[in-house]
Amino acid sequence: MRTNPFITGFTALAALAFGGTAHAYPEFQKYVSQKSGRTVNCAMCHMHSDGPEGAAPGQIGHLTMGEQAELGRARAAFEPHANVKSPILNAFGNHIINSLGKKQFLEMRVTPSELANKLPKDSDLDVDGITDVDEYLTGTHPLIKSDGRPWLLFKVNLAANLGQIVLMLAATVLGLWGLHHLLHGFDVATRLQDNDEESG
Ligand SMILES: [Ca+2]
Asked: Where are the domains of the chain?
């Protein structure tokens, strides 16, 4: 059976326009997945977990006229610090574009590991104590506070709550000490009473 080139071309175009699982820049996603061993979808940087292509909320087919204009500005933000807000990117995606500019970002497609070196080191968008760079490298979500490598989250929480933990331990020790002396007191009282009864 011969394939009609027109139909093939149209199908390819339709897939491009409506394909729900198209990934904008799969190089970064692939790198993070391989490095972290975790399944990472487009939602690390995009509004929609299937990426920008499609008509669902957060995807290109769903944008209003105003959002399309914002998208145009974001796509033209080749230099850093353009202060754009792409409606198809989440806060981390926009942080990347605003920190590095589109030009530098596109250049890093061949070396996606470089993104970790170029992003601001101390930025922690979800304020969970794990920097965006570390979340990128460990494949956890930089905008979800509860998502982080368990050991890293434990260390951060331990450091943040150390004062409370010390107080709790001190209260427990004091409580046990008090209980010990109370029981000792009862013991002495009981023995005294026994002695009284025996002598009486
Ligand atoms: Ca974080």
From this structure: 5-148, 161-199
Beta bridge partners of 46: 89
pLDDT in tens, 100-124: 999 999 999 999 999 999 999 999 9
Q: Scanning the structure block, which residue is given the tokens 């974001």? A: 74
Q: Which residues make Cβ contacts (< 8 Å) with residue 156, sequence separation at least 6?
A: 128, 129, 130, 148
Question: Left, alpha or beta for 115 (phi > 0: left; psi -120 to 50: alpha)?
Answer: alpha
- 83-96 mean pLDDT: 98
Sign of CA dihedral 13, 14, 17, 23: negative
Q: Return the structure tokens found at 105.
A: 């970002």
Token readout for 85 is 């807000």
**Length in residues, the chain:** 200
Tell me the pTM. 0.70
Residues at Cβ < 5 Å from ligand 1 ion: 124, 126, 128, 130
pLDDT tens digits, residue range 152-167?
Answer: 888 888 888 888 888 9
Centre of ligand 1 from the C-alpha of residue 131, in Å: 5
- State the distance from the centre of ligand 1 to the C-alpha of 180, rounded, in angstroms: 45
Ligand 1: distance of its center to the CA of 145 in Å? 6
